Amino acid sequence: MLIYYNTREGLNDTNPYLAIALLLLSVVLWGILVVRWFRNWILLPFKMKRNADYLLREGEHRDARILESLQGKTVNNTVEKKLTLGLKNFVGTDITEKLELIDTRPSEMRYEKGKSIRLVIDKTLKLRPYMMVDGGQAGLNPGRIILLVVGWLVLTIAIVWYFYFSYTTESNGYGWRFMKFYHPLVLCPLILFLTRYGLGLLLKLFTGGDPGKLLHVKYFGVQTMADVVNATQTGTYINEQPQVKFELRYRDTYGKTYTAALKKIVSLIDLGTVRQEKISIFYLKENPSEVAFASDLDD
Prior knowledge:
Blueprint: H1 2-7, H2 16-58, E1 60-75, E2 78-88, E3 94-103, E4 116-121, E5 131-133, H3 142-170, H4 184-207, H5 211-220, E6 221-238, E7 241-251, E8 257-265, E9 278-284, E10 291-293, H6 294-298
Antiparallel strand pairs: 1-2, 1-4, 2-3, 4-5, 6-7, 6-9, 7-8, 9-10
Helix pairs in contact: 2-3, 2-4
């Protein structure tokens, strides 16, 4: 917006049909964003509360051991806990999970290192949250919900006002012909969309796969050691860190040999993994070509 309002010129020469098309594009993009913000900020907490209640009733039970317990903020005799848990996935493979919760009875020291807890996990892994402590509770913070509603309303009103402001200050009797593809009304929502999907793409590059698929491999996969047949840079760099293609060879539980290829961004301080002869992976029994690095699943 700073660039636009300091460099704009020739604002009245846009083809009227193109101007209307850009206006409609802007309205549609902002409309999608406003609806998405409403769903994520206001409706999502209620949906997660409903999911948590369903999970406590229907979830798969699993015992876990607390490998690490970090204490966070203390508020009104409750303590925030950040736990690292060790448990077995749905096919009996050892995995680790991270879980944050509010301990409402800290004096009982239920969540200290070395202790065991019982979890409930969504076997479809589609619910959010997909894992909770058995017997836990999910609640809503009314004050937070009110703030989110007010914030959403203020933002929505500001967007509508900006359409009005742009028209009254830039039309000069020519209607919407001041609209350009680089006008903030068009460019700002486009940037927000590109940022949203760009971050998703970056996450896939760094982890070597889609987060949903990685979670499925984590909970239904078998761990084994794979031979690193070859590891070469693809020529892609993110923040000066190279993307590496790993060619792997491994055997399943029946002794059958498989090959697979994985691409991921490797941190410069982790380039030693490129020279490893063997590396720990997870693979799916029903689809052995679906693999993931064990180190990626830990996070």
